[in-house]
Write a structure and sequence with these properties.
This protein is of the alpha+beta class. The strands form three sheets. The chain has a five-stranded antiparallel sheet with strand order 3-5-8-4-9, covered by helices on one side. Strands 1-2 form a two-stranded antiparallel ribbon. Strands 6-7 form a two-stranded antiparallel ribbon. Strand 1 and strand 2 form a beta hairpin. This is Adenylate cyclase.
Length: 545
Amino acid sequence: MYSSIDTLWILIGAVLVFFMQAGFAMVESGFTRAKNAGNIIMKNLMDFAAGTLIFWVIGFGLMFGTSLNGLVGTPDFFVQGDYSGTYPTMAFLIFQTVFCATSATIVSGAMAERTKFSSYCIYSLILSGFIYPVSGHWIWGGGWLSQMGFHDFAGSTAVHMVGGVAALIGAKILGPRIGKYDKNGKPKAILGHSLTLGALGVFILWFCWFGFNGASSLSLTGDEAIITVSTIFVTTNISAAAASVVTMLITWVKYGKPDVSMTLNGALGGLVAITAGCNVVSPFGAFWIGTIAGFVIVFGIEFVDKILKIDDPVGAVGVHGMCGAVGTILVGVFSVSNGLAYGGGYEALKIQTIGVLAVATWVAITMTIVFKVIKLAIGLRVSKEEEIIGLDIEEHGLTTSYADFMPMDAKIATYPEQQMIPVKHSMDMPITKITIITKQSNFEDLKLAMKSIGVTGMTVTQVLGCGIQKGTNEYYRGIPVDFNLLPKVKIEIVVSKVPVDLVIKAATDCLNIDNIGDGKIFVYPVIDVIKVRTGEKGYSALQDE
């Protein structure tokens, strides 16, 4: 007899975990460059779609089939057996499918911006169909780790560390992006194109994590289950919050200002770390797990970047690999039933550590073989030219992922020239183009200044740039940005009636506050102007009828 509430709870959880794919897509695309955004989205789509099929065909059976000596499940092609409890088999299948997809999608972020799409599809299939199910069987399918008493409630190790270790191996074999390290091996910051997208992804993931952890109870029937799920929600949230705050404070002290992208990673690290023990730790235990995860994030990402010199654009290794491992081990410390901090001795801590090392070793060995074979067979990395141009155009024929949105150098405003107040003009004055580059916040004042002298004909664009100061001092993910392009506005004015000196004086008086970054004014002679509609040239082409 199935339970309606249990089945509904599992299905709601499956929907939430599925929506985590959107969160991962936003985080990964936001933390990478715009020229690769379409490629990132396509990989996140296909690792779920292809992973769903391979997990249905063989992966599920390897993970949950009758155990063969505690090592792997008996293959059950297309899931023909009965795996029901208080819920039908199909509810359990879809719930486990979305978990498998989560593990696979972690890898794409660490290997972003330089991996062949075809190669990605191949190793994603192998991870989803074989590597993840085997270690998953050890933990959740009745395998040897579960028999030892290893506890990983919702997948800090089974899901996240598997993806994190695979990401580490893949990024190492693949090599860093062009320009990531200088000739001395010093890392250079490569900024993502949208922290806004990254933040949206983190909020989506945080929201969905309540289903990821909560629905792993597989039941919401009875007082005990209700209390357990409620506790899971609280511990999940507290760990994420603690990790976020701690990460922010560490970066504030370490870099002088709170690092946005690192703090976003901190939230995810806290979520990953609590996933293993969310049902057996108290809110206080969750706080300490999240706090430790905050330290792991900052120093772990720096270790990968600066010491190991492995290029991980989104911090997947630190978030999923390191925090997954640490969070799983900390169950042996903070579990209220048998943790070291509660008088349970070292036995649980030992079992948790053995489990983490075993799974990490399994994934590292198998994924090394997979990546090496793919590299020899069809190649793992795109060419230098393809990487520089961007994977969107080279891999997918996509000129831009933002075709109907305004690019950074797009025209944002054009005003017809008209005389506002009397100014002495001369028909013999040459035609001159004046380009003004300044802070975006100065635009409205500058526009009014130009109108006051009779100039409102202008073209305005939003640009990125810096002067010889190389922009303001800034850290991105713990690395100093040595060439920081700042948002600017570029105003182009072509004058004929209004004296050039008058335009320059008005602009200078408006913009000059004696600070670095006030702006620059460039003056160019114009050979000729042609009005397309009438064919008029020179001075006449600039006048309105």
